[in-house]
Specification:
The chain is built from 4 helices and 21 strands. The protein is α+β, with helices and mostly antiparallel strands and about 290 residues long. Helix 2 crosses helix 4.
Length: about 290
């Protein structure tokens, strides 16, 4: 009888540990979709986390002693937030972006000298501060923060930008599928245009309420074979033209239609004197289609 009681106790303890280990990691109520991800917070904001109780959080290699919540640094910038196992292995690696408040934009529309401009509506609370040398920080398994920078003031640092978790989820899903189907072995998509400041967006004559201004849109193409700055011949017809963008568009349209990724926009574009064919993908929260 005593043996049965001991065995039952061991089983309950094992089950409890197993269920705790299977609990997904959540930060501020959001389940992290990948072990490599990002979180954006304001300076001094309380960060709540929940998940496997066998994982310990570390911020810039220093263990966080409080459990389930801690306070974000006051200084805007990029911090490395890791959740480690008891053996010291990294289970989740998160880029913690402490945002530069938009209230610091000066009267000329600049943030520490970087020209933001004026938002027509819904000005963000803050922006990711990117200092020189930090462009290779991963924001998801296959994308880095530097891929999404606006094409302005190339020699100015710091730069500022935004990214969208919803759109990154769409991009990761699309990349995984198109690789799995053998269409490409690309490690990432080439992001021709990611974040645009309102200043830059106006200067190039883009839509007044472009999702690019919120980091929620990307213009992408596949550039691997050969790596030459234009879309690969992914439909394998021997030509590099809008038909490759249309093929990419159709593939994404069919994939998104049968998956549970968040709704968003999709557009197909051909070449002009400045660029080759590409596809627009955004995470606006509703379906939008054009250019096909």
């Amino acid at each position: 009888m005593l043996k049965l009681i001991v065995l039952a106790a061991v089983w309950k303890l094992t089950a409890a540990i197993g269920s705790a280990s299977d609990t997904p990691l959540q930060i501020n109520g959001e389940v992290l979709p990948y072990d490599v991800w990002h979180v954006m917070v304001m300076p001094g904001e309380t960060i709540n986390y929940d998940g496997p109780n066998l994982l310990a959080p570390f911020l810039d290699d220093v263990e966080i002693q409080s459990r389930n919540a801690f306070t974000a640094p006051e200084k805007p910038g990029i911090y490395d937030l890791e959740f480690r196992t008891r053996s010291g292995d990294v289970a989740s690696d998160i880029a913690l972006f402490v945002l530069e408040p938009s209230s610091r934009i000066d009267a000329s529309g600049r943030l520490n000298g970087y020209r933001i401009g004026q938002y027509p509506q819904d000005e963000p609370d803050g922006f990711i501060r990117l200092d020189e040398g930090y462009g290779d920080v991963h924001v998801s398994p296959n994308f880095r923060i530097g891929q999404f920078l606006c094409k302005q003031q190339p020699d100015h640092w710091p730069k500022y930008l935004l990214i969208s978790s919803a759109n990154l989820g769409r991009l990761e899903h699309l990349l995984a599928a198109i690789r799995s189907d053998g269409i490409t072995d690309a490690e990432t998509f080439f992001v021709m245009s990611g974040y645009r400041t309102p200043f830059y967006n106006t200067a190039i004559g883009s839509a007044k309420l472009s999702r690019h201004m919120y980091g929620d849109a990307t213009d992408i193409y596949i550039d691997v074979s050969p790596r030459d700055g234009v879309m690969d011949d992914i439909n394998r017809d021997g030509a590099l033209d809008k038909e490759d963008a249309n093929f990419f568009y159709d593939y994404a349209e069919q994939l998104f239609a049968r998956s549970d990724v968040s709704a968003g926009g999709l557009g197909s574009y051909g070449s002009n004197a400045v660029h080759g064919p590409f596809v627009h993908v955004d995470g606006r929260g509703r379906k939008a289609r054009w250019g096909r």
